[in-house]
Sequence to fold (634 residues):
Amino acid sequence: MTLPANQAAVEIAGLNKWYGDFHVLRDIDLTVARGERIVICGPSGSGKSTLLRCINRLEDWQLGRVAVDGIELTDDRRRILAVRRDVGMVFQQFNLFPHLTVLENCTLAPIWVRGMPKRDAEALARGYLGRVKISEQADKYPARLSGGQQQRVAIARALCMNPSIMLFDEPTSALDPEMVKEVLDTMIELAKDGITMLVVSHEMGFARQVADRVIFMDGGQILESGAPKSFFDHPQHERARAFLRQILH
Amino acid sequence: MSATGDDLRNDRPRSGVKRLPSTVLRSALAWPRQNLFSSPLNAALTLGCIALVVLAVPPLIRFFLLDAVWSGTDREACVKPLASGACWPFVRAWFSYFVYGFYPPDQRWRVDIFLAALAFGIGWLAWLEAPRRGFGAVYFFVVLPLVSFVLLHGAAPIGLPVVPTALWGGILVTMVVATVGIVVSLPLGTLLALARRSEIPLVRWIAVAFVEFVRGVPLITVLFMASVMLPLFVPERYAPDKLIRALVGVALFASAYMAEVVRGGLAAIPAGQYRAARSLGLSYWGMMGLVILPQALRVTLPNIVSIFIGLFKDTTLVFVVGIFDFLGTVEAARGDPKWAAPTTTVTGYAFAAAFYFVCCYGMSRYGHGMERRLVGSQGAGRRPL
Fold:
């Protein structure tokens, strides 16, 4: 798949979504460039996670269009699967498969989705488990691991599909404080590789260090979008200022 | 960690030699005091239970073992000494009928092979460390049913005389009905459970209608309808065999119950598991087969085993449509005038009860063992993620 270098990784236009009467996403327009690292923040219930889940079509929507790597997401199942193969996702609750070992968690998709021989998939998985510094746990079941370790396995599992885009849905929110750093360090390492990242997070230190752009959402809308420095130092919107006051204290 | 373990192991014999008697005695008394006589009510219950056991068990042992008649060729043996014990020679005389029914004696080796092949298949699947369990499943769910049908029913071209199912009986029929019920109900019930959660309305409605209809009707009615009403609509010539009709009835009945149990298991899997599987690009069947069902069936295992146990006992109901399963053969044999004695009927039923108990208790124990093992293999179990 050779794509023009200037093509956007994600293109969202006029996206609207309702849960019954609740208007969860309002007129979202967002273009993510290849290799761009975006941190999305905002109060809970503002639609951040929903927006992220629209990008790999874990949620559908009523109005608007989403294209990933030039593939327009429709009801066509083949397109949806093609996008999901190319978009990795990491969840707040890790969502490792508890009945499989760490290694099996990582090789499942390469074997069954990519059709990779088991031996190759295991070599690939051990490589990524090494990168997230968790090789020695490969044969354990997830329940035996700490939260931070589980989340690093979840990152390795997503990377095993060699995605060009990674989505992180509050990856550190469910972690004990002392484990947040090990996960953030893993993500910072990842950012150095130039992979496109969209991260829903309130880790402002991470945003300052890694993000090319910070997006602030509230009430289902994107209220601000800009470089981390200008967002943190001179937030334009009153609600953004209120939000920053709350999380920085 | 290992150092402490060694210390403990070295420590035990030395101090144990001196302390052992008093410790054992104290703990031997402490356990009943804590567990059996902790309160007046508990003590009363304990004494009541002991009284029940004392009242019930010795007469049973006397009847079935001590006073029982063990040899003889007809009723004389069981009547003569004003017999007050079980009449075991009756069971011995009718034993082959209990196993084979009226299956022709010179063809009974076929049944023996079937029962051995069945036992082999169960062993292969039940033994969790067995090699090639994947092939074991194929053997049990595909090869065994096909081969068994040819073997038991017969096929003229390969020189096996056809034995009409009307001649089948006894443990053979019980095993055939139970195995077909189990082999069909697990996959069919799983499919029905998935259909009931489907996003396609028509699929969902069909599954709901089937499950609710079957669960709303007693099994005995299903069997009567299959054997009495079907011939009214279909010419006898085209109507399927009586045993097959009963098999279909039992299998569909068990599937409906299995569907509800599996559905409960599916509901217990958190939405995050579905999301994670989907986000990796797995298709619906990949997600279900690799991620969701393995967990859901694990959660459901105790209930699946109880359905199997219920199904195994429900096979006796085929008797009402004139099929002589194991209990049916006992029922028929106890009327034999050659063995007419006051204790014949009780002996026959006791034998039947023992057979069903051994089979069902075996399933139950296996289910428990499996549960413990699955919890163990996942370490701390499923911590609330």
The longest helix of chain A spans residues 177-192. Chain A has a mean pLDDT of 92.
